[in-house]
Design a protein that fits this description.
B: alpha/beta; Rossmann fold; 2 domains; six-stranded mixed β-sheet; five-stranded antiparallel β-sheet
Chain lengths: 292, 346
Protein backbone atom coordinates (compact mmCIF):
# COMPACT_ATOMS: atom_id res chain seq x y z
CA UNK A 1 0.00 0.00 0.00
CA UNK A 2 2.99 2.26 0.57
CA UNK A 3 3.17 2.73 -3.19
CA UNK A 4 0.09 4.94 -3.23
CA UNK A 5 1.13 8.58 -3.09
CA UNK A 6 -0.49 11.14 -0.83
CA UNK A 7 -0.84 14.88 -1.40
CA UNK A 8 -2.34 16.07 1.87
CA UNK A 9 -5.87 17.26 2.48
CA UNK A 10 -6.13 20.46 0.50
CA UNK A 11 -7.59 23.29 2.59
CA UNK A 12 -9.09 20.95 5.19
CA UNK A 13 -7.82 21.45 8.75
CA UNK A 14 -9.56 18.82 10.87
CA UNK A 15 -9.69 19.21 14.64
CA UNK A 16 -12.00 20.13 17.49
CA UNK A 17 -12.36 23.71 16.26
CA UNK A 18 -13.47 22.50 12.83
CA UNK A 19 -15.92 20.06 14.44
CA UNK A 20 -17.38 22.79 16.60
CA UNK A 21 -17.76 24.99 13.55
CA UNK A 22 -19.63 22.18 11.78
CA UNK A 23 -22.20 22.05 14.60
CA UNK A 24 -22.67 25.83 14.42
CA UNK A 25 -22.85 25.86 10.64
CA UNK A 26 -25.48 23.12 10.55
CA UNK A 27 -27.59 24.92 13.18
CA UNK A 28 -27.38 28.24 11.32
CA UNK A 29 -28.15 26.64 7.95
CA UNK A 30 -31.19 24.77 9.33
CA UNK A 31 -32.48 27.92 11.02
CA UNK A 32 -32.03 29.90 7.79
CA UNK A 33 -33.94 27.25 5.86
CA UNK A 34 -36.84 27.15 8.31
CA UNK A 35 -36.93 30.95 8.49
CA UNK A 36 -37.51 30.98 4.73
CA UNK A 37 -40.77 29.09 5.29
CA UNK A 38 -42.86 31.89 6.78
CA UNK A 39 -44.77 31.40 10.03
CA UNK A 40 -43.79 27.78 10.71
CA UNK A 41 -42.51 28.29 14.25
CA UNK A 42 -45.50 30.42 15.27
CA UNK A 43 -47.90 27.78 14.01
CA UNK A 44 -46.06 25.09 15.96
CA UNK A 45 -46.48 27.15 19.12
CA UNK A 46 -50.26 27.02 18.87
CA UNK A 47 -50.40 23.24 18.71
CA UNK A 48 -49.73 22.57 22.43
CA UNK A 49 -52.39 25.09 23.35
CA UNK A 50 -54.91 23.18 21.24
CA UNK A 51 -53.64 19.86 22.62
CA UNK A 52 -54.12 21.12 26.17
CA UNK A 53 -57.47 22.82 25.51
CA UNK A 54 -59.19 19.64 24.35
CA UNK A 55 -58.83 17.59 27.58
CA UNK A 56 -59.25 20.67 29.79
CA UNK A 57 -62.61 21.47 28.22
CA UNK A 58 -63.59 17.80 28.12
CA UNK A 59 -62.68 17.38 31.81
CA UNK A 60 -64.63 20.47 32.83
CA UNK A 61 -67.71 19.32 30.92
CA UNK A 62 -67.58 15.79 32.32
CA UNK A 63 -67.09 17.01 35.89
CA UNK A 64 -69.85 19.58 35.46
CA UNK A 65 -67.82 22.72 36.16
CA UNK A 66 -64.26 23.84 36.68
CA UNK A 67 -64.37 23.58 40.51
CA UNK A 68 -65.61 20.01 40.40
CA UNK A 69 -63.02 19.24 37.77
CA UNK A 70 -60.30 20.68 39.99
CA UNK A 71 -61.42 18.60 42.97
CA UNK A 72 -61.53 15.40 40.91
CA UNK A 73 -58.16 16.17 39.42
CA UNK A 74 -56.70 16.83 42.88
CA UNK A 75 -57.80 13.37 43.99
CA UNK A 76 -55.92 11.76 41.10
CA UNK A 77 -52.81 13.90 40.92
CA UNK A 78 -52.39 15.98 44.06
CA UNK A 79 -52.98 19.34 42.36
CA UNK A 80 -56.09 21.28 41.47
CA UNK A 81 -54.30 23.20 38.77
CA UNK A 82 -55.28 20.86 35.95
CA UNK A 83 -54.89 23.54 33.28
CA UNK A 84 -51.22 24.16 34.08
CA UNK A 85 -50.66 20.42 34.55
CA UNK A 86 -51.91 19.77 31.02
CA UNK A 87 -50.28 22.81 29.52
CA UNK A 88 -46.89 21.62 30.83
CA UNK A 89 -47.63 18.12 29.54
CA UNK A 90 -48.73 19.31 26.08
CA UNK A 91 -45.85 21.77 25.70
CA UNK A 92 -43.24 19.22 26.77
CA UNK A 93 -44.81 16.70 24.44
CA UNK A 94 -44.43 19.29 21.67
CA UNK A 95 -40.69 19.52 22.43
CA UNK A 96 -40.30 15.72 22.39
CA UNK A 97 -42.45 15.30 19.32
CA UNK A 98 -40.68 18.08 17.38
CA UNK A 99 -37.29 16.62 18.16
CA UNK A 100 -38.34 13.27 16.73
CA UNK A 101 -40.18 14.85 13.80
CA UNK A 102 -37.41 17.22 12.87
CA UNK A 103 -34.65 14.62 12.98
CA UNK A 104 -36.77 11.99 11.21
CA UNK A 105 -38.00 14.34 8.52
CA UNK A 106 -34.56 15.89 8.15
CA UNK A 107 -33.05 12.51 7.31
CA UNK A 108 -35.86 11.56 4.99
CA UNK A 109 -35.82 14.90 3.19
CA UNK A 110 -32.05 14.81 2.81
CA UNK A 111 -32.34 11.30 1.40
CA UNK A 112 -34.95 12.38 -1.13
CA UNK A 113 -33.25 15.59 -2.19
CA UNK A 114 -29.83 13.95 -2.58
CA UNK A 115 -28.16 16.05 0.09
CA UNK A 116 -27.76 13.06 2.42
CA UNK A 117 -25.28 11.53 -0.01
CA UNK A 118 -23.50 14.90 -0.16
CA UNK A 119 -23.25 14.86 3.64
CA UNK A 120 -21.73 11.39 3.47
CA UNK A 121 -19.03 12.69 1.15
CA UNK A 122 -17.67 15.19 3.64
CA UNK A 123 -14.98 14.23 6.17
CA UNK A 124 -17.04 15.46 9.11
CA UNK A 125 -18.11 12.65 11.40
CA UNK A 126 -21.85 12.11 11.53
CA UNK A 127 -21.98 12.83 15.27
CA UNK A 128 -21.23 16.52 14.60
CA UNK A 129 -23.78 16.84 11.84
CA UNK A 130 -26.34 15.07 14.01
CA UNK A 131 -25.40 17.28 16.93
CA UNK A 132 -26.03 20.30 14.71
CA UNK A 133 -29.39 19.02 13.56
CA UNK A 134 -30.56 18.01 17.04
CA UNK A 135 -29.39 21.33 18.46
CA UNK A 136 -31.39 23.10 15.78
CA UNK A 137 -34.38 20.86 16.60
CA UNK A 138 -33.91 21.76 20.25
CA UNK A 139 -33.79 25.50 19.56
CA UNK A 140 -36.86 25.29 17.37
CA UNK A 141 -38.85 23.15 19.78
CA UNK A 142 -37.84 25.22 22.83
CA UNK A 143 -38.92 28.38 21.03
CA UNK A 144 -42.29 26.77 20.35
CA UNK A 145 -42.39 25.58 23.98
CA UNK A 146 -41.73 29.03 25.35
CA UNK A 147 -44.34 30.72 23.17
CA UNK A 148 -46.87 27.97 23.95
CA UNK A 149 -46.33 28.26 27.71
CA UNK A 150 -46.66 32.05 27.68
CA UNK A 151 -49.67 32.17 25.37
CA UNK A 152 -51.29 29.11 26.98
CA UNK A 153 -50.90 30.61 30.48
CA UNK A 154 -52.60 33.79 29.32
CA UNK A 155 -55.41 31.87 27.62
CA UNK A 156 -56.07 29.44 30.50
CA UNK A 157 -55.36 32.03 33.19
CA UNK A 158 -52.61 30.10 34.98
CA UNK A 159 -49.28 31.21 36.40
CA UNK A 160 -46.37 29.14 35.05
CA UNK A 161 -43.95 30.85 37.45
CA UNK A 162 -45.75 29.73 40.59
CA UNK A 163 -43.31 27.00 41.65
CA UNK A 164 -39.62 26.29 41.31
CA UNK A 165 -39.08 27.49 37.74
CA UNK A 166 -35.31 27.07 37.79
CA UNK A 167 -35.63 23.43 38.75
CA UNK A 168 -38.20 22.90 35.99
CA UNK A 169 -35.77 24.43 33.48
CA UNK A 170 -33.03 22.13 34.80
CA UNK A 171 -35.30 19.11 34.27
CA UNK A 172 -36.07 20.29 30.75
CA UNK A 173 -32.39 20.88 29.99
CA UNK A 174 -31.20 17.52 31.28
CA UNK A 175 -34.21 15.73 29.81
CA UNK A 176 -33.36 16.94 26.34
CA UNK A 177 -30.05 15.06 26.37
CA UNK A 178 -31.59 11.57 26.34
CA UNK A 179 -33.90 12.97 23.64
CA UNK A 180 -30.79 13.37 21.48
CA UNK A 181 -30.20 9.66 21.83
CA UNK A 182 -33.82 8.79 21.12
CA UNK A 183 -33.76 10.94 18.00
CA UNK A 184 -30.56 9.14 16.83
CA UNK A 185 -32.37 5.81 17.30
CA UNK A 186 -35.35 7.20 15.46
CA UNK A 187 -33.10 8.49 12.66
CA UNK A 188 -31.48 5.05 12.28
CA UNK A 189 -34.91 3.49 11.98
CA UNK A 190 -36.09 6.03 9.38
CA UNK A 191 -32.90 5.49 7.38
CA UNK A 192 -33.63 1.78 7.24
CA UNK A 193 -37.37 1.81 6.55
CA UNK A 194 -37.05 4.86 4.25
CA UNK A 195 -40.41 6.18 5.33
CA UNK A 196 -41.05 8.89 7.86
CA UNK A 197 -44.74 9.79 7.85
CA UNK A 198 -46.37 6.63 9.16
CA UNK A 199 -43.58 6.05 11.69
CA UNK A 200 -43.87 9.58 13.00
CA UNK A 201 -47.68 9.41 13.19
CA UNK A 202 -47.50 6.21 15.20
CA UNK A 203 -44.63 7.34 17.41
CA UNK A 204 -46.40 10.58 18.19
CA UNK A 205 -49.33 8.81 19.83
CA UNK A 206 -47.14 6.23 21.55
CA UNK A 207 -44.97 9.00 23.00
CA UNK A 208 -47.98 11.09 24.07
CA UNK A 209 -49.48 8.05 25.75
CA UNK A 210 -46.30 6.88 27.48
CA UNK A 211 -45.23 10.25 28.82
CA UNK A 212 -48.63 10.99 30.36
CA UNK A 213 -49.41 14.24 28.60
CA UNK A 214 -52.85 14.55 30.21
CA UNK A 215 -52.71 12.19 33.18
CA UNK A 216 -50.27 10.75 35.71
CA UNK A 217 -48.73 7.49 34.49
CA UNK A 218 -49.53 5.98 37.90
CA UNK A 219 -52.94 5.15 36.47
CA UNK A 220 -51.31 2.64 34.07
CA UNK A 221 -51.31 -1.11 34.72
CA UNK A 222 -47.94 -2.33 36.11
CA UNK A 223 -46.24 -3.40 32.85
CA UNK A 224 -47.19 -0.24 31.00
CA UNK A 225 -46.19 1.81 34.03
CA UNK A 226 -42.77 0.17 33.96
CA UNK A 227 -42.22 1.22 30.34
CA UNK A 228 -43.49 4.73 31.09
CA UNK A 229 -41.10 5.04 34.02
CA UNK A 230 -38.03 4.15 31.97
CA UNK A 231 -39.06 6.51 29.17
CA UNK A 232 -36.99 9.72 29.53
CA UNK A 233 -39.73 12.18 28.47
CA UNK A 234 -41.97 10.79 31.24
CA UNK A 235 -39.31 11.42 33.87
CA UNK A 236 -38.61 14.88 32.43
CA UNK A 237 -42.29 15.93 32.34
CA UNK A 238 -42.87 14.52 35.80
CA UNK A 239 -39.90 16.46 37.17
CA UNK A 240 -41.12 19.67 35.56
CA UNK A 241 -44.65 19.24 36.89
CA UNK A 242 -43.29 18.37 40.31
CA UNK A 243 -41.17 21.55 40.34
CA UNK A 244 -43.88 23.94 39.13
CA UNK A 245 -46.89 22.41 40.89
CA UNK A 246 -45.09 21.19 44.03
CA UNK A 247 -46.09 17.58 43.39
CA UNK A 248 -44.38 14.45 44.55
CA UNK A 249 -42.47 12.94 41.66
CA UNK A 250 -42.85 9.40 40.32
CA UNK A 251 -39.60 8.21 41.87
CA UNK A 252 -40.22 9.90 45.23
CA UNK A 253 -37.85 12.86 45.63
CA UNK A 254 -36.98 15.30 42.81
CA UNK A 255 -33.31 14.36 43.17
CA UNK A 256 -34.08 10.73 42.23
CA UNK A 257 -35.79 11.89 39.04
CA UNK A 258 -32.85 14.14 38.40
CA UNK A 259 -30.27 11.41 38.98
CA UNK A 260 -32.16 9.03 36.69
CA UNK A 261 -32.34 11.67 33.97
CA UNK A 262 -28.60 12.33 34.27
CA UNK A 263 -27.89 8.60 33.92
CA UNK A 264 -30.18 8.49 30.89
CA UNK A 265 -28.39 11.54 29.48
CA UNK A 266 -25.17 9.54 29.38
CA UNK A 267 -26.44 6.13 28.33
CA UNK A 268 -29.13 6.85 25.73
CA UNK A 269 -27.19 9.22 23.40
CA UNK A 270 -24.34 6.69 23.38
CA UNK A 271 -26.70 3.81 22.57
CA UNK A 272 -28.51 5.93 19.98
CA UNK A 273 -25.34 6.97 18.19
CA UNK A 274 -23.89 3.45 18.21
CA UNK A 275 -27.14 2.13 16.73
CA UNK A 276 -27.09 4.88 14.12
CA UNK A 277 -23.51 4.02 13.11
CA UNK A 278 -24.29 0.30 12.90
CA UNK A 279 -27.33 0.95 10.77
CA UNK A 280 -25.34 3.29 8.54
CA UNK A 281 -22.63 0.67 8.03
CA UNK A 282 -25.24 -1.96 7.26
CA UNK A 283 -26.81 0.31 4.66
CA UNK A 284 -23.42 1.11 3.12
CA UNK A 285 -22.78 -2.60 2.74
CA UNK A 286 -25.76 -2.91 0.51
CA UNK A 287 -27.81 -0.22 -1.18
CA UNK A 288 -26.00 2.90 0.06
CA UNK A 289 -27.42 5.92 1.86
CA UNK A 290 -28.61 7.67 -1.26
CA UNK A 291 -31.17 5.05 -2.22
CA UNK A 292 -34.68 5.92 -1.17
CA UNK B 1 3.22 10.52 -13.54
CA UNK B 2 3.64 6.82 -12.89
CA UNK B 3 2.90 6.61 -9.19
CA UNK B 4 -0.68 5.70 -8.37
CA UNK B 5 -2.73 8.04 -6.19
CA UNK B 6 -5.78 5.75 -6.41
CA UNK B 7 -5.29 2.02 -6.25
CA UNK B 8 -8.01 -0.60 -6.48
CA UNK B 9 -7.26 -4.23 -5.64
CA UNK B 10 -9.60 -7.08 -6.68
CA UNK B 11 -12.58 -5.02 -5.64
CA UNK B 12 -16.00 -6.64 -5.94
CA UNK B 13 -19.40 -5.38 -5.00
CA UNK B 14 -22.52 -7.48 -4.77
CA UNK B 15 -25.92 -6.00 -4.03
CA UNK B 16 -28.66 -8.04 -2.48
CA UNK B 17 -32.13 -6.99 -3.52
CA UNK B 18 -35.58 -8.47 -3.20
CA UNK B 19 -37.23 -9.64 -6.36
CA UNK B 20 -41.00 -9.39 -6.53
CA UNK B 21 -42.67 -11.30 -9.31
CA UNK B 22 -46.42 -11.45 -9.65
CA UNK B 23 -47.81 -14.66 -8.20
CA UNK B 24 -44.47 -15.67 -6.69
CA UNK B 25 -42.97 -15.32 -3.25
CA UNK B 26 -40.53 -12.51 -2.70
CA UNK B 27 -36.98 -13.81 -3.02
CA UNK B 28 -33.54 -12.41 -2.52
CA UNK B 29 -31.40 -11.82 -5.54
CA UNK B 30 -27.69 -11.11 -5.49
CA UNK B 31 -26.45 -8.82 -8.23
CA UNK B 32 -22.74 -8.50 -8.85
CA UNK B 33 -22.09 -4.90 -9.85
CA UNK B 34 -18.29 -5.06 -9.76
CA UNK B 35 -16.12 -8.11 -10.38
CA UNK B 36 -12.53 -8.20 -9.11
CA UNK B 37 -11.59 -4.76 -10.34
CA UNK B 38 -7.88 -3.94 -10.38
CA UNK B 39 -7.07 -0.38 -11.28
CA UNK B 40 -4.46 2.31 -10.72
CA UNK B 41 -5.08 5.98 -11.34
CA UNK B 42 -1.79 7.82 -11.60
CA UNK B 43 -0.92 10.96 -9.73
CA UNK B 44 -1.68 14.04 -11.81
CA UNK B 45 -3.64 12.40 -14.62
CA UNK B 46 -7.17 12.79 -15.90
CA UNK B 47 -8.56 9.31 -15.89
CA UNK B 48 -11.74 8.69 -17.85
CA UNK B 49 -14.11 5.97 -16.76
CA UNK B 50 -16.45 5.09 -19.59
CA UNK B 51 -19.25 2.63 -19.88
CA UNK B 52 -22.96 2.36 -20.56
CA UNK B 53 -25.60 2.82 -17.87
CA UNK B 54 -25.56 -0.06 -15.41
CA UNK B 55 -21.99 -1.05 -16.26
CA UNK B 56 -20.70 -0.37 -12.73
CA UNK B 57 -19.12 3.11 -13.08
CA UNK B 58 -21.15 4.72 -10.34
CA UNK B 59 -20.75 1.73 -8.02
CA UNK B 60 -16.98 1.89 -8.44
CA UNK B 61 -16.95 5.61 -7.75
CA UNK B 62 -19.21 5.15 -4.74
CA UNK B 63 -16.80 2.56 -3.34
CA UNK B 64 -13.85 4.88 -3.92
CA UNK B 65 -15.63 7.82 -2.28
CA UNK B 66 -16.67 5.67 0.74
CA UNK B 67 -20.39 5.88 -0.03
CA UNK B 68 -20.48 2.09 -0.38
CA UNK B 69 -18.43 -0.62 1.25
CA UNK B 70 -16.90 -3.20 -1.09
CA UNK B 71 -18.02 -6.81 -0.72
CA UNK B 72 -14.43 -7.98 -1.18
CA UNK B 73 -11.11 -6.46 -2.16
CA UNK B 74 -10.19 -2.93 -1.20
CA UNK B 75 -8.90 0.42 -2.46
CA UNK B 76 -6.67 3.31 -1.42
CA UNK B 77 -7.23 6.94 -2.27
CA UNK B 78 -4.49 9.48 -1.63
CA UNK B 79 -2.72 6.86 0.48
CA UNK B 80 -5.76 6.15 2.68
CA UNK B 81 -7.82 3.00 2.79
CA UNK B 82 -11.46 3.42 1.80
CA UNK B 83 -12.71 1.08 4.51
CA UNK B 84 -10.59 1.93 7.51
CA UNK B 85 -9.67 5.59 6.87
CA UNK B 86 -12.93 6.89 5.47
CA UNK B 87 -12.66 10.39 6.94
CA UNK B 88 -9.18 10.92 5.49
CA UNK B 89 -10.29 9.61 2.10
CA UNK B 90 -13.21 12.04 2.11
CA UNK B 91 -10.96 14.92 3.15
CA UNK B 92 -8.71 14.10 0.17
CA UNK B 93 -11.38 14.35 -2.50
CA UNK B 94 -13.76 16.79 -4.10
CA UNK B 95 -16.85 15.21 -5.59
CA UNK B 96 -19.53 16.03 -8.07
CA UNK B 97 -21.42 12.77 -8.19
CA UNK B 98 -25.10 13.43 -8.42
CA UNK B 99 -25.30 16.44 -10.65
CA UNK B 100 -27.30 19.24 -9.14
CA UNK B 101 -28.73 17.04 -6.39
CA UNK B 102 -26.83 17.54 -3.19
CA UNK B 103 -27.53 21.26 -2.93
CA UNK B 104 -29.85 22.99 -0.47
CA UNK B 105 -32.44 24.77 -2.56
CA UNK B 106 -33.57 27.11 0.21
CA UNK B 107 -30.01 28.39 0.70
CA UNK B 108 -28.19 30.71 -1.68
CA UNK B 109 -25.27 29.47 -3.74
CA UNK B 110 -22.84 31.28 -1.45
CA UNK B 111 -24.49 29.81 1.65
CA UNK B 112 -24.24 26.33 0.10
CA UNK B 113 -20.53 26.82 -0.58
CA UNK B 114 -19.98 28.12 2.93
CA UNK B 115 -21.95 25.24 4.43
CA UNK B 116 -20.04 22.53 2.59
CA UNK B 117 -16.73 24.35 3.10
CA UNK B 118 -17.28 24.17 6.87
CA UNK B 119 -18.23 20.49 6.61
CA UNK B 120 -14.99 19.90 4.69
CA UNK B 121 -13.19 21.46 7.66
CA UNK B 122 -11.95 24.48 5.72
CA UNK B 123 -11.31 27.25 8.29
CA UNK B 124 -13.43 30.38 7.95
CA UNK B 125 -10.89 32.82 6.53
CA UNK B 126 -9.50 30.59 3.73
CA UNK B 127 -13.05 29.38 3.11
CA UNK B 128 -14.33 32.88 2.40
CA UNK B 129 -11.33 33.55 0.15
CA UNK B 130 -11.92 30.26 -1.64
CA UNK B 131 -15.60 31.12 -2.21
CA UNK B 132 -14.62 34.46 -3.75
CA UNK B 133 -12.04 32.71 -5.93
CA UNK B 134 -14.62 30.18 -7.13
CA UNK B 135 -17.22 32.87 -7.77
CA UNK B 136 -14.70 34.58 -10.07
CA UNK B 137 -13.37 31.40 -11.66
CA UNK B 138 -16.77 29.96 -12.51
CA UNK B 139 -18.52 33.30 -13.09
CA UNK B 140 -21.14 32.70 -10.43
CA UNK B 141 -21.47 36.39 -9.57
CA UNK B 142 -24.84 36.90 -11.27
CA UNK B 143 -26.68 34.29 -9.26
CA UNK B 144 -24.57 33.16 -6.29
CA UNK B 145 -26.55 35.28 -3.81
CA UNK B 146 -29.94 33.97 -4.93
CA UNK B 147 -31.52 30.86 -3.41
CA UNK B 148 -30.75 27.76 -5.47
CA UNK B 149 -34.46 27.12 -6.10
CA UNK B 150 -34.36 30.04 -8.58
CA UNK B 151 -31.45 28.63 -10.63
CA UNK B 152 -31.57 27.05 -14.06
CA UNK B 153 -30.35 23.45 -14.22
CA UNK B 154 -27.08 24.63 -15.83
CA UNK B 155 -26.50 27.12 -13.00
CA UNK B 156 -27.13 24.40 -10.44
CA UNK B 157 -24.59 22.15 -12.18
CA UNK B 158 -21.97 24.91 -12.11
CA UNK B 159 -22.64 25.49 -8.42
CA UNK B 160 -22.33 21.74 -7.79
CA UNK B 161 -18.99 21.86 -9.60
CA UNK B 162 -17.92 24.81 -7.44
CA UNK B 163 -18.92 22.80 -4.37
CA UNK B 164 -16.58 20.01 -5.45
CA UNK B 165 -13.71 22.51 -5.50
CA UNK B 166 -14.42 24.18 -2.16
CA UNK B 167 -11.83 22.16 -0.20
CA UNK B 168 -9.16 22.39 -2.92
CA UNK B 169 -8.59 18.63 -2.59
CA UNK B 170 -5.81 16.89 -4.54
CA UNK B 171 -8.27 14.45 -6.17
CA UNK B 172 -11.51 15.25 -7.99
CA UNK B 173 -14.29 12.80 -8.81
CA UNK B 174 -16.48 14.22 -11.56
CA UNK B 175 -19.43 12.10 -12.63
CA UNK B 176 -20.92 13.40 -15.90
CA UNK B 177 -20.32 17.02 -14.89
CA UNK B 178 -21.43 18.61 -18.16
CA UNK B 179 -24.79 16.89 -18.44
CA UNK B 180 -27.59 19.54 -18.67
CA UNK B 181 -25.04 22.29 -19.36
CA UNK B 182 -25.26 24.31 -22.54
CA UNK B 183 -22.44 23.91 -25.05
CA UNK B 184 -20.38 27.05 -24.18
CA UNK B 185 -20.66 26.38 -20.42
CA UNK B 186 -19.64 22.74 -20.90
CA UNK B 187 -16.68 23.83 -23.01
CA UNK B 188 -15.67 26.35 -20.34
CA UNK B 189 -15.95 23.68 -17.66
CA UNK B 190 -13.73 21.30 -19.62
CA UNK B 191 -11.18 24.09 -19.96
CA UNK B 192 -11.23 24.60 -16.19
CA UNK B 193 -10.90 20.85 -15.60
CA UNK B 194 -7.82 20.85 -17.82
CA UNK B 195 -6.38 23.85 -15.91
CA UNK B 196 -7.03 22.17 -12.57
CA UNK B 197 -5.23 19.10 -13.86
CA UNK B 198 -2.30 21.22 -15.03
CA UNK B 199 -2.20 22.70 -11.54
CA UNK B 200 -1.60 19.18 -10.21
CA UNK B 201 -4.99 17.72 -9.44
CA UNK B 202 -5.77 14.11 -10.27
CA UNK B 203 -9.19 13.81 -11.85
CA UNK B 204 -11.40 10.78 -12.22
CA UNK B 205 -13.94 11.71 -14.87
CA UNK B 206 -16.92 9.69 -16.04
CA UNK B 207 -18.82 10.61 -19.15
CA UNK B 208 -20.96 9.24 -21.93
CA UNK B 209 -19.58 11.83 -24.33
CA UNK B 210 -16.69 10.34 -26.26
CA UNK B 211 -15.41 13.67 -27.49
CA UNK B 212 -15.12 14.81 -23.87
CA UNK B 213 -13.08 11.75 -22.97
CA UNK B 214 -10.89 12.17 -26.03
CA UNK B 215 -10.36 15.86 -25.29
CA UNK B 216 -9.67 15.56 -21.58
CA UNK B 217 -8.44 12.16 -20.54
CA UNK B 218 -4.85 11.02 -20.38
CA UNK B 219 -5.99 7.44 -19.90
CA UNK B 220 -9.33 5.77 -20.24
CA UNK B 221 -10.86 2.66 -18.69
CA UNK B 222 -13.94 1.12 -20.22
CA UNK B 223 -16.13 -0.72 -17.77
CA UNK B 224 -18.80 -3.19 -18.80
CA UNK B 225 -20.78 -5.74 -16.80
CA UNK B 226 -18.76 -4.79 -13.72
CA UNK B 227 -15.36 -5.44 -15.29
CA UNK B 228 -12.73 -3.13 -16.74
CA UNK B 229 -12.45 -4.51 -20.23
CA UNK B 230 -10.09 -1.95 -21.74
CA UNK B 231 -7.50 0.33 -20.19
CA UNK B 232 -4.96 2.64 -21.79
CA UNK B 233 -4.33 6.03 -23.37
CA UNK B 234 -6.74 7.17 -26.07
CA UNK B 235 -4.19 6.63 -28.90
CA UNK B 236 -3.32 3.20 -27.47
CA UNK B 237 -6.94 2.16 -27.41
CA UNK B 238 -7.54 3.38 -30.94
CA UNK B 239 -4.46 1.54 -32.11
CA UNK B 240 -5.72 -1.61 -30.42
CA UNK B 241 -8.28 -2.08 -33.20
CA UNK B 242 -6.01 -1.81 -36.25
CA UNK B 243 -7.05 -1.94 -39.89
CA UNK B 244 -10.68 -1.48 -39.02
CA UNK B 245 -12.90 1.33 -40.14
CA UNK B 246 -16.37 2.29 -39.06
CA UNK B 247 -19.31 3.23 -41.23
CA UNK B 248 -22.21 5.01 -39.50
CA UNK B 249 -25.68 4.65 -40.96
CA UNK B 250 -28.92 6.20 -39.79
CA UNK B 251 -32.40 5.34 -40.98
CA UNK B 252 -34.88 2.48 -40.83
CA UNK B 253 -33.32 -0.96 -40.92
CA UNK B 254 -35.42 -4.13 -40.53
CA UNK B 255 -33.81 -6.91 -38.50
CA UNK B 256 -33.28 -9.16 -41.50
CA UNK B 257 -31.33 -6.38 -43.22
CA UNK B 258 -29.02 -6.09 -40.22
CA UNK B 259 -28.56 -9.85 -40.14
CA UNK B 260 -27.78 -9.88 -43.85
CA UNK B 261 -25.27 -7.09 -43.32
CA UNK B 262 -23.59 -9.05 -40.55
CA UNK B 263 -23.22 -11.96 -42.93
CA UNK B 264 -21.33 -9.92 -45.53
CA UNK B 265 -17.71 -10.83 -46.01
CA UNK B 266 -15.45 -8.10 -44.63
CA UNK B 267 -17.92 -6.96 -41.96
CA UNK B 268 -16.64 -7.46 -38.41
CA UNK B 269 -19.50 -6.27 -36.18
CA UNK B 270 -22.74 -4.34 -36.57
CA UNK B 271 -23.92 -2.50 -33.46
CA UNK B 272 -27.53 -1.32 -33.49
CA UNK B 273 -28.82 1.59 -31.43
CA UNK B 274 -32.58 2.10 -31.47
CA UNK B 275 -33.76 5.67 -31.87
CA UNK B 276 -37.16 7.38 -31.97
CA UNK B 277 -39.91 6.45 -34.45
CA UNK B 278 -38.56 3.06 -35.51
CA UNK B 279 -35.32 4.63 -36.65
CA UNK B 280 -31.97 3.23 -35.66
CA UNK B 281 -28.26 3.83 -35.96
CA UNK B 282 -25.86 1.22 -37.22
CA UNK B 283 -22.15 1.29 -36.43
CA UNK B 284 -20.60 -1.09 -38.92
CA UNK B 285 -17.03 -2.17 -38.29
CA UNK B 286 -15.29 -3.40 -41.40
CA UNK B 287 -11.81 -4.04 -42.72
CA UNK B 288 -11.78 -1.26 -45.28
CA UNK B 289 -14.59 1.28 -45.38
CA UNK B 290 -13.79 2.57 -48.88
CA UNK B 291 -13.94 -0.92 -50.26
CA UNK B 292 -16.96 -1.97 -48.25
CA UNK B 293 -19.14 1.13 -48.65
CA UNK B 294 -20.66 0.16 -52.04
CA UNK B 295 -21.29 -3.39 -50.77
CA UNK B 296 -23.00 -2.08 -47.63
CA UNK B 297 -25.25 0.23 -49.66
CA UNK B 298 -26.04 -2.53 -52.09
CA UNK B 299 -26.91 -4.93 -49.29
CA UNK B 300 -29.23 -2.48 -47.58
CA UNK B 301 -30.83 -0.45 -50.38
CA UNK B 302 -33.87 -1.94 -52.04
CA UNK B 303 -34.26 -4.40 -49.22
CA UNK B 304 -37.02 -2.67 -47.24
CA UNK B 305 -34.57 -0.37 -45.51
CA UNK B 306 -34.31 3.39 -45.70
CA UNK B 307 -30.92 5.11 -45.42
CA UNK B 308 -31.11 8.72 -44.20
CA UNK B 309 -27.47 9.25 -43.46
CA UNK B 310 -24.25 7.41 -44.20
CA UNK B 311 -20.69 8.31 -43.25
CA UNK B 312 -17.40 6.48 -42.96
CA UNK B 313 -15.55 7.71 -39.89
CA UNK B 314 -12.26 7.50 -38.10
CA UNK B 315 -11.87 5.10 -35.22
CA UNK B 316 -13.22 6.64 -32.00
CA UNK B 317 -13.33 5.53 -28.41
CA UNK B 318 -16.87 4.41 -28.99
CA UNK B 319 -15.64 2.12 -31.75
CA UNK B 320 -13.19 0.65 -29.29
CA UNK B 321 -16.13 -0.07 -27.02
CA UNK B 322 -18.13 -1.56 -29.90
CA UNK B 323 -15.26 -3.85 -30.88
CA UNK B 324 -14.72 -5.05 -27.34
CA UNK B 325 -18.37 -5.56 -26.41
CA UNK B 326 -20.38 -5.76 -29.62
CA UNK B 327 -22.67 -2.94 -28.37
CA UNK B 328 -22.74 0.84 -28.39
CA UNK B 329 -22.31 2.95 -25.26
CA UNK B 330 -25.93 4.10 -25.48
CA UNK B 331 -27.21 0.65 -24.67
CA UNK B 332 -28.00 -0.07 -21.03
CA UNK B 333 -26.30 -3.16 -19.70
CA UNK B 334 -27.68 -5.41 -17.08
CA UNK B 335 -25.64 -6.34 -14.06
CA UNK B 336 -24.77 -9.96 -13.58
CA UNK B 337 -26.99 -12.01 -11.33
CA UNK B 338 -24.74 -14.29 -9.34
CA UNK B 339 -27.16 -16.04 -7.06
CA UNK B 340 -30.79 -16.93 -7.25
CA UNK B 341 -31.44 -16.88 -3.55
CA UNK B 342 -29.93 -15.74 -0.29
CA UNK B 343 -26.44 -14.35 0.03
CA UNK B 344 -25.64 -11.14 1.81
CA UNK B 345 -23.38 -8.28 1.04
CA UNK B 346 -20.58 -7.76 3.46
Amino acid sequence: MGEVVSHGLGLARPGWRANLEVVGTVVVARLKIVARYKGVILMEAFLPIVFAALPILLGVSIAGGSEKAATNFFNATGTENYALYMLIGASTFMVVSLMLWLVGYWLRREQESGTLEALYLVPTRRIYILAGVTTYAMIRSLTAFLIAIILGSLIFGVNPFSGNVLMAIAFLGIGLLPMWGISFLFGAFIMKVKEANSVIQLMQWVVAFLMGVYFPVTVFPPLLRFFALIFPPTVMTDGMRGSILALETLYGGWYVNFAILIAMAFVIPYLGYETFLRMERRIKRNEGVGQF
Amino acid sequence: MTQPIIKVETLSKTFVSKERKKGQRKRKKAVQALKDIDLEVYDGEVFGLLGPNGAGKTTLIKCLTTLLLPTSGTAWVNGYNVETQEDLVRASIGCMLMGDRGLYWKLTGRENLNFFGALYHVPKSPRLQRIEYLVDLLKLGDFVDRTVETYSSGQRMILAFAKSLINDAPILFLDEPTVTMDVPTARELRKIVRELNEAGKTILYTTHLMHEAEELCDRVGIIDHGEIIVLGTVPELKASIPHEDVVNLEGIFPTYVVEELRGLEGIKTVAVTAEMGGRSRLDVLCENSRLMLPKIIESIAGNGAMIEFIRPQEVTLEDVFVVKTGRTLDVDTRQVVVEGKGGRGR
